[in-house]
Structure prediction request, 531 residues.
Amino acid sequence: MAIRSPNSTHGPIGYNLAPQAEGEHVLNALASMFPSRLEQASDDHFVYLDTFDWRLFKRGMRLALHTADENRALRLETNDACIYEPLPRSTAPRFAGDLPAGRIHDQIAPIIAVRRLLPRVEIETKTNRVEIGDENKVMACVQLIQTHVTDPEANNDQSKALDPKLQVAATCGDHPATLRRITRYLEYDLGLDPATHETFQEALEIIGHEPSSYRSKPEIGLEPTMTAGEAALAICRTLLDTLLVNEAGVRRDLDMEFLHDFRVAGRRTRSILALIGKVFEPQSKDHFREEFKWLGSVTGPVRDLDVHLLRMNNYRASLPEAASKDLAPLGQYLRRHRSTARRRLTAALRSKRYHALVDTWRAHLDGSQPELLIERIARQPVMDVASKRIWQAYRRVEKRANAIGPDSSADVLHKLRIECKKLRYLLELFYSLYDSNDIDPLIKALKRLQKNLGDFNDLVTQEAALRRIAHEMEQAKFATVDCLLAMGQLLGELIWRQHRERRRFAKCFARFNKPRNRKRFRQTFKTVAAN
Prediction:
């Protein structure tokens, strides 16, 4: 809860109560010193909502479901504003689409995207308020706020009390002299210290939440003095932690990004096992690569269906209004199959095979002398190994891309996309070893090329999947004629978009592989690898 009052023209000034001072005593002392009246106490309940990865917090925003008496509202606090909007429904919004139309929706929907709004901290306050002024004009108010905090993620409802606070604010016009008199009395006569932290920050600290602790793309602090073995283990441990921290969200099916991050952590692990090559002992490496490949195969169907469902709005928007309504059976079909795929995924995550993979992989990574490593090669400096692998990955991308012509098949571009993904993994996982001024432009250029290849591949995959689904729906008598006709129109739209992305490839690759970037790759990685 920010230190700001919606009725104030000045931001409130907060004070911590001195250990020997009682809140009621302070309010009574103020009432005896200034013309004032004591207002009736009020109770407020705030449930602060944010995504699992704290997207709102990182943008300087706090969204709360505020309940006072029988009134419910959404409250959005930013650095320079506080927006209140009534919430007509009794349940908290879960996704952007659940938010009522209005300013709050417009500000946060693009930020949270497909992520679910989760209750992150619950704050209950009891406020006693003294208004200072005469009957005709209230010039300031002083509030005694007693706060209890609950962690919604905990298994119990036990709350924790914060130290009481006072807040002082002007309420009607500009009254600096009155505020100075009040603050001087609180600070010099009563010995109160200005608060250095706001209530929301203290609430997070008392329940142990660290909003910046999770990143979907983990930052791995490698040192150039590390050996290749030490770096490989550090990367794999971080990726395993990322996979496991997303597991609960996958099991509970909270939102599709949990599964996405879960899959990416597994896929990056497979890539590291392959791309760092001989650092790993062959038999162990092959075993774990196969197990992570299996994990990818059991999570893939749900992810594919998530993507199709996510694109349903785009599908409808690309068609005339009449035809878009005919796609309703397609949405029903996808949701039905997703439910089946979810049951299989849940069973896989409960299986002995999955638990054995996690347990044995952790044991290999945390062993004092991991059996996973080949000692001789693992002792090489990580800078040498990383630079060599990145340079080799870049050369593979360059060679494949230069061989692509106007008649190259979609499969050829798909293979280039895979090589670009491997290069991106290496650049990001070994990022901390290099000067960011050298590596940031390369990652940025690679992202643009990947977007072109990814969009093209997605369109090819969507076309193939839509054809297959149309046949399945027809055989199952699940689709109406109008639905199949609408899907046919959609196929035409997908094919047209494929051609558009295909024509853009040559320009996208030329921008990625311009002379300046080739020089950066050569100087940053080839020179190091050659020394």
Notes: Residues 1-10 have pLDDT under 50 and may be disordered. Residues 442 and 517 are 7 Å apart (CA to CA).
